[in-house]
Amino acid sequence: MEMERDEQGQPNASIFCITAIRASPRLFDVGATSSEDIPTGAFVGLKNGIGSTPKNYQHVLSLAFAVKEINENPIILPNVSLGFHIFDSYTNAKITHQNTLKLLSVSEKIVPNFKCDKKMNMIAVIGGLDSEISFHMATILSIYKIPQISYSILAPIGDVRTQLPAFYRMVPNENYQFIGLVQLLKYFQWTWIGVIVSDNEIGEMFGQTVIPMLSHHGVCVGFHERTPSLSQVMEIVGSFETLQAKINSLTNPEIKVIVVNAEPQTTTWLKWFLYFYSMLENISENLLGKVWIMTAQWDFSAETMQRAFDIEPFCGTLSFAIHTNEVVEFPEFLQRLHPGTETGNAFFRMFWEQAFNCLWASSHEDKNNCTGEEKLESLPATLFEMSMTDKSYSIYNAVHAIAHALDNMFKSKVNGVMGNSRLCPPNVQPWQFHSFLKSISFNNSAGELVSFDENGELVAGFDIINWITFPNQSIVKVKVGSILPSQEFTLNKDAISWHRTFNQALPIAQCNDNCHPGYRRKKKEGKPFCCYDCVPCADGKISNQKDMDDCFKCQEGQYPNQNKDQCLPKVLNFLSFSEPLGIMLAFLSLSFSLITASVLGIFIKHKDTPIVKANNRDLTYSLLICLLLCFLCTLLFIGLPQTLTCYLRQTAFGIIFLLAVSCVLAKTINVIVAFMANKPGSRMRNCLGKRLSNSILLCCFLIQIIIYAVWLSSNPPFQDFDLDSLAEEIIIECNEGSVIMFCCSLGYLLFLGIVCFVVAFLARKLPDTFNEAKLITFSMLVFCSVCLSFIPVYLSTKGKYLVAVEVFYILASGAGLLGCIFFPKCYIIIVKPELNSKDQLIRRK
C-alpha cells in the first residue's frame, strides 16, 4: 500500500486500489509500501475520506475484510487473488486529479495513457466519501470508460446517468430519503421545524428539493440556516454578532425539531459550533431540548482534537442511514488486528496513535507511549465502532459487486460468450466490464440482495436510526424504522428514546397548538401557513379532526352535536300517541267525542220536548253527529303520517266540519224564514222544512266537494320528510301538496263561518220561540276568532307542534259550537226541565 502524506504526516482522504492476479495464494498485506508488493492483474481504486477522524479508518478495514473473504472463497474468482493500494486525496481537487492520474498510469510518475507495468490493468474505482471529490475523479475516469462505484454520495446530483454513464452508486436513490423525511415529520405531526444546510451547491439543491416537499405536506420551515465553509468558521467565531445570530437560530425555544443535511461540511461546522458554544457558556436547555433529524451522511464521529466534545445535545437524534445488515465475522476480524501483526502498514500504526491518543516509543514527544496492548473494543463509538457502519457496509458490497462481476465475466469467456479465449485479468478492458457490473445481482454474506437499478443505484431503502448517547462517549444505535424502495414507511415509536428534557414524552413541534375538533384553522396575517388561530365552526357545521382548514355540513339525516365535533342521527319528529302532547290531545278528542255523544243521547231521549223540536230537530242531530265526527277525525292527525292518513286528514276534517257549519247556517236561515213566514200574507211558509235545509246543505257541500276533487286530482297531500327545518330532527309530515287548494278549503270554511255569523247576528233579536240566533252568533264568533288566530300560528310553527296547533284548532272550533249552542239547551233539559214546556215558554213570552 502506497500512501501520500500531508505536511504533518496525517492521512486525509485516501484512494484504495484493488489488484487481481491469477493463481496467487496470498492476501496483499495492508500497508505494503512499494509497488513491488502489489500483485499484477486487474486494478480497482477506492477513495476514502479519513483525515483526523479515526472512525473512518473502518472504511479501509472493511475493504481489507471484503478482499480477504473473496480470496478465501473458492467459488468466486477461483485461481485469482485480490490486493489493494491506497492514495490520499486530501479532500483537495488538485491532489484528487493527480492521484486519479496515478491510478491510470500505475507508476510513481504521472504519465497519462502510458503504463510502465503492463501487468496492471485498472477496471473499476470505488470512491468516495465526499461528493465533490467523487465528481472530480469521475470527470477523468469517464474518459476511459472506467466504472466508478461511489459508496457514500447522497447529495442530489441530477441526471447522473446521462452526464456520467460510468458512474455507479452503492447507495439508494435520495428521493427515498426525502420521502421518508416527509413521512417521519407527518407521523409525529411536526409542522414547525428548522433546516440547516451547507452554503454550497449541495445545500442549495437540498433546499430546492426538500423544502417544497415539506410545504406541500403542511410543514413550515421556521429558519433556514446555511453553514459556512470550514475556512469561514474561525471568522464567524471571531465575530460576536455573527456568532450570536447563529446561536439565536439554533437555540430558538419555538423550534423543537431541526433537520440537518448532514453533508460533511455541515456536520463539521455544527460540531465546531456546539464546541465553541459550550466554551462560551454551559449548554442551555434551549439547545438540549431539540430533536435532530439527520440525513444519511451523518455519523457520530469525534475528530482527534475534539475528544472531549460533548455529545449530549445529540442524544435522541433520529437519522437516516443506508440500509445495512450485520456481517457476523467482521468484529472478529477487527479483534485480530494488532500493530505487531501489521508491521508493513504505517497507516495502521498512525490510526492506532490517533485512536488511543498515544505515540510509539520512537517518538520523543511528551505523550503516552503506545504499548500495542490497547483494545479496539475499548474505544468510544465516537472514535471507532466494532460493528460495520453503513459506509463500510457499502464499501464491503462494492468490493463484492466488482468481484462477482469479474467472476461472471470470466465464466462468460469460458462459455464462449466473450469470444476471446485468451482473455485474462491483465487483458480485461473497462468497457467490457460495464454490462456485467450493471446487471450484477447476488446475496452477500449477510443475506442481503445486492443489485443496481436502471440508474446505476443500489436497489435498497433507508433505515431510521435512533442515537442514544451516554456520558462516557459511548453510543447505542437502535433501528426504529425504514423507508423501502416501494415507498413503504414503517416506524416503531415505542422503541425511540428521546432526550432527557422531554421526559420520554413525544416532542411537539408546532407553531401553535392544534385546533381541536369543533374548530377550524384561520390563517394569521403575516405568518407562515403553519401558524393559525382556531375558530369555532359555524352553526350547522362540524370538524371531526384536528387542524381542519374548514368545517363541513353533516349528511342528510344527521346534525352536529353541541361540541360540533361529530354528527348525530336526527330523531323522527311527529305527533305520537306515546308522548305527553299526543296523549293530551287524544284525551281531549275522546272526551269531546264522549260529551258530544252524550248530548246527542240527551237530545234523542228528549226529542219530543219543545226545546229539541225548535229550529229543526233533524239539523240538530246532523250538527251533533258532524261535531262528533270532527272530534274523532283529530285522531288522524296523531301518529306516524302515512299516505292514507295524509289523504284523509284534510279531506275528512274539511268535509265534516263544513257540514257542521252548513247545519248551523241552515238553522240560522230557518230562524229568519220562520219569523218571516209568521207574518200575515207571507209566502215563505212553503220554504220551511227539510227542503230548505237540505238545499243549503247540498249547495255548501257541492262547492267543498269540487274544491277537494280538484285538489286530490291535481296535487294531493303526501307523506314528506323535512330535513332542514329543525336542526336535530327529521320532520315526518303530511305535505298538503297544493297550498292554493288548501287555502281555498280553509278560506271557504272561514267564509261560511262569517256568513253564518252575520246572518245570526242580524237575527239575534227576532221574537221567535227558542230563537237560537244569539247562541249561533256566539258560536260563530268563537269559530271565526279561532280560525283567524290559527292562521299566523300555523304558518310560524314546524313539526309536531304544527300538527298540535291544527288539532287544537279543530277541537276549539268544535268545542265552541258544542258549548255555545248546546250547553244552554242541555242546562234547561237537565237542570231546569220545568222551562222545557210550551205553556211556560208562552207565558214567559
TrEMBL record:
Primary subcellular site in the record, as a coarse category: membrane
The UniProt record lists the keyword Signal: yes
Localization, UniProt: Cell membrane
Annotated transmembrane regions: 581-604, 619-640, 652-675, 696-714, 739-763, 775-795, 807-830
Annotated membrane topology: Multi-pass membrane protein
Domain G-protein coupled receptors family 3 profile: 581-845
Database matches in Gene3D superfamilies: 3.40.50.2300, GPCR, family 3, nine cysteines domain
Pfam family, one: NCD3G
SUPFAM superfamilies linked: Periplasmic binding protein-like I (SSF53822)
Superkingdom as given in the UniProt entry: Eukaryota
Cross-referenced CDD domains: 7tmC_V2R_pheromone (cd15283)
Keywords, ordered alphabetically: Cell membrane, G-protein coupled receptor, Glycoprotein, Membrane, Receptor, Signal, Transducer, Transmembrane, Transmembrane helix
Record protein name field: Vomeronasal type-2 receptor 26-like
Species of provenance: Pogona vitticeps (central bearded dragon)
Name of the gene: LOC110086498
